[in-house]
């Protein structure tokens, strides 16, 4: 099949899922065309069957805001027409599903019917999509998509609750390529912590919904009793909060390692003893799944789809959103019981296997085929 993928190029979860999916589809012999404002962060252009089309936004002084969505629709239109794409897959409703619908209409005028699949990722429904400036357009573009998928049961339910949706929403969970987690060893753990110290890790785009304040508070309390280091991977607006915390607690500065966006994420995850994700909202929690695939138990909140990924008392522990004290107790419990920690590492890895791409990729391929057949008949 010839597949067009629309996604954000940044390190956000939706862009990562879209990029990994596209690369695996390409690996399976499909021709995959990425369309985005920039080269997606994890896209490996040395792979066969991959194309990238940058959305070019013409800067014109009259515009206070440059019309990205129009440029995106035109890009989709041209790419579908030139390369004769069979399907368009929009990742994140705003603006991708909306722009794709416009492109579909333009193509229709030329006698070309191209099915549109929209995958909902989370904040397009639970946060940004709720804003009156976007809500009606999000609802419209979901209803106008040929097929709609969501990355968790929880997000599917939230979509029906928050919008007037006439479509069936199919849940296709996010996935992981467990194959890339097999070749790591513990050689460089000493670069991050001494042998007697535990490593707590947090990976996110450091936005408010991630509740970085809870990450810092849990770390502060745990390290008072158990020697612990904190690694924070990612960049975002809440970095200011981290800096303020460090200024307020100078003795903790040597114990906190800020790493920004790293290419060696999977390798560093493998050194961690616990992954912490206390989010206010999380439709799935791809970062938690990546940690589990690296054999790291997860301490998370019970937000959104997290309980579908992190299994309480098995792959880690779950506490209510904002319940820092329970997160501290759970982390200490893990750190003080080597047998429990070892078992939870195994459980985390086993659970990650259930989300292996080999189980998920066929679901997308089947959906593409169904959409194409439906379009023809
Ligand atoms: O919130 C983020 O980290 C970014 C955001 C995105 O759309 O890029 O992530 C959402 O999509 C991810 C991939 O499907 C999910 O794993 C995240 O849980 C979801 N984030 C939220 O719902 C807050």
From TrEMBL:
InterPro entries: Glyco_trans_1, Glyco_trans_4-like_N, Glycosyltransferase_grp1, Thiol_BshA
Pfam family, one: Glyco_transf_4
Residues in Glycosyltransferase subfamily 4-like N-terminal domain copies: 11-177
SUPFAM superfamilies with a match to the protein in the record: UDP-Glycosyltransferase/glycogen phosphorylase
GO molecular function: glycosyltransferase activity
BP terms from Gene Ontology: bacillithiol biosynthetic process
Domain Glycosyl transferase family: 192-350
NCBIfam families assigned: thiol_BshA
Name of the protein described by the UniProt record: N-acetyl-alpha-D-glucosaminyl L-malate synthase BshA
């Amino acid at each position: 099949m010839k597949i067009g993928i629309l996604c954000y190029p940044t390190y956000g979860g939706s862009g990562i899922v879209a990029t990994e999916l596209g690369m695996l589809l390409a690996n399976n012999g499909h021709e995959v065309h990425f369309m985005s404002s920039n080269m997606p962060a994890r896209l490996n252009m040395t792979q066969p069957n991959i194309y990238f089309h940058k959305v070019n936004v013409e800067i014109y002084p009259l515009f206070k805001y440059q019309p990205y969505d129009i440029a995106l629709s035109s890009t989709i239109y041209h790419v579908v027409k030139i390369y004769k794409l069979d399907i368009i897959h929009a990742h994140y409703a705003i603006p991708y599903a909306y722009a794709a619908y416009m492109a579909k209409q333009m193509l229709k005028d030329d006698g070309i019917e191209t099915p549109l699949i929209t995958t909902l990722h989370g904040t397009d429904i639970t946060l940004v999509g709720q804003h009156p400036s976007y809500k009606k357009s999000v609802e419209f573009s979901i209803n106008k998509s040929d097929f709609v998928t969501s990355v968790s049961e929880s997000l599917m339910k939230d979509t029906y609750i928050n919008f007037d949706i006439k479509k069936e929403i199919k849940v296709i969970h996010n996935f992981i390529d467990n194959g890339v987690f097999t070749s790591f060893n513990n050689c460089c753990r000493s670069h991050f912590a001494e042998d007697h110290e535990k490593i707590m890790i947090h990976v996110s785009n450091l936005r408010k919904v991630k509740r970085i304040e809870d990450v810092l508070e849990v770390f502060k309390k745990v390290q008072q009793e158990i020697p612990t280091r904190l690694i924070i991977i990612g960049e975002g607006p809440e970095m200011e909060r981290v800096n303020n915390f460090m200024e307020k607690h100078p003795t903790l500065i040597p114990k906190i390692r800020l790493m920004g966006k790293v290419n060696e994420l999977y390798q560093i995850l493998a050194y961690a003893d616990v992954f912490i994700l206390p989010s206010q909202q999380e439709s799935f929690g791809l970062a938690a799944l990546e940690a589990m695939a690296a054999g790291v138990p997860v301490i998370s909140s019970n937000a959104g789809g997290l309980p579908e990924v992190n299994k309480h008392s098995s792959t880690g522990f779950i506490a209510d959103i904002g319940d820092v004290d329970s997160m501290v107790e759970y982390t200490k419990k893990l750190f003080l019981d080597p047998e429990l920690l070892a078992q939870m590492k195994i459980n985390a890895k086993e659970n990650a296997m259930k989300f292996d791409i080999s189980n998920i990729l066929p679901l997308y391929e089947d959906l593409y085929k169904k959409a194409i057949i439906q379009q023809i008949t």
